[in-house]
């Protein structure tokens, strides 16, 4: 039983409403580039929000992998109800091995679940082994440049996280909370510095890696209001890692 097996339904319900995700998905689309006819591997695909978007963005073949059988069950339920031809499998991204050569690999909130540097390196190797040379990997992670001391409070954008350990160190325990009004869902993950992430990507073979804030998404109806993203941009709570093989 993984932690997401117990929170799968709540995660699905709340995650879809979190305002930060609008910036995240918009940026992911920009950073993955044109997906027309491409194959995409989504590691830690959860209930399939990303996999379904990749299909809508033109991808030909999409494979979603997650360690939680409950999250994959939700993704598969949606696929059965509204088929897009997405393939799902339950597996640990750290031990998946090569299952193909994909034009893109994405991982929205996988890497900070690595419990050790070794596990992080195994995840980075999985990405590398499944990616076509010259192609791009994009991952969302809690901002490794902005340590929680002891809290990162972005409830305005739908989430926050705090340090559970007394002092911040490599591999420290963090607890994240997603908010939907008074309803919350909580999950635990780990603190790794950007140096540690970079070391893992380089050891896996990536030559080019960078970390960037999410881009501000268009707001044609002015729903968010001007300045909505200022607080996020001043101190991003989550960022994109972009690596090229
Ligand atoms: C915050 S959710 C993100 C789900 C989805 N990517 C999204 O953006 O909505 C984190 C996901 O990572 C998965 N996960 C954690 N560790 C994993 C691992 N070692 N291998 C594969 N999936 C993992 C969890 O089961 C969970 O579904």
Uncertain ranges = none
Task: Classify the secondary structure makeup into a structural class.
Answer: alpha/beta
Overall geometry comes to globular
User: Which small molecules are bound?
Assistant: S-adenosylmethionine
CATH-defined topology: Rossmann fold
Number of helices: 7
Structural domain tally: 1
CATH homologous superfamily assignment:
Vaccinia Virus protein VP39
CATH architecture, by name, is 3-Layer(aba) Sandwich
Strand content: 25-35%
Provide the spatial order of strands within the biggest beta sheet: 3-2-1-4-5-11-10
**Sheet with the most strands?**
7 strands, mixed
Mean pLDDT: 97
Number of extended strands:
11
- In whole angstroms, the N-to-C terminal distance is 34 Å
Fraction of residues in H or I helices: 25-40%
- CATH class, named Alpha Beta
Gyration radius, in Å: 17 Å
Return the string of H and E elements: HHEHEHEEHEEEEEHEHE
